[in-house]
Amino acid sequence: MRHARWHRTDRYRGCMMLNRLKKSVSLRSAAISLMMLAPVALPALARAQSVAVSAPQYQNVTISFNGVVANDVSRSLTVRQSDGTIAAYTGPVPAFSYAQGQAVTVSFDARLPTKAYFDGLLGAGATLPAGGIYHLQVDNGAPGTGNLNNATTATITGGLHAVSSMGEMPYNRLKLIYDYNTDAYSLDGTGAFMDTSLLGAGYYYDLASGKVVACTTACIDPPGQDNGALSLQSGADANTLTTAFARIYDSMGQAWGNFSMTLTGSWSLPKGGGGAVQVPEPSMLALFGAGVLVPVWRRRRARRKQG
Fold this sequence. Notes:
eleven-stranded antiparallel beta sheet; four-stranded antiparallel beta sheet
């Protein structure tokens, strides 16, 4: 009887030792797996911590003015009278291709700095301007102080198009404000928009008949002149664009009068550029890796128990 009890005790002790040995082997396997992972993962994670993944320094956007023709352009004609004065044209009024109420879009592509760009300036020792406001000019002209010079030539729906005028390339610009605090762009005042050297719909003066004739694509181009060439620029406020230098010439290149077009609408601007994209710290990712190994160890233990 005593021998049998001792025998059962020995079996119990043996089972306990065997279970402890299994646990030790399983934990050792998990530890070895973690040690095998650490030389590969931890250095890479440390490098990821030291070099943050940042958002792009620039963003490519389309800036546009969406509006309508606010005036009857055909009734804006003025011509030179026989006494040299300028007065409203009283002859037959030709139709104009931009009718009152017609929708018109002026747009161009630009490459604007993101918040990450300005973060880089501040990180390099630059001082944040008053109120966090940066003044920028977007244009497609020659490099200049404070200019981004990274816009495409503007396009206008309805027939007006940019051309070189008397040897000068078409030029467009828009002045913007970037608010660092809100990560948003807005117009600088009226935006001081200007789009030069536009050809298309216009008028010219017919000397033979003494009448103003409409041009649907491009007017007569006498030597040294660009009939129909005009500019579109900001009006009295940011919601208005008006024509400038919209002159009426004759076939000899003499100016006989003017006409005007006004667009009312609003600008569509980018909302901002975002900031840095954060990555987890190495210590947290190491814990994540260990968390992945724990279920693996448990599955191995369950399979051994079933066996």
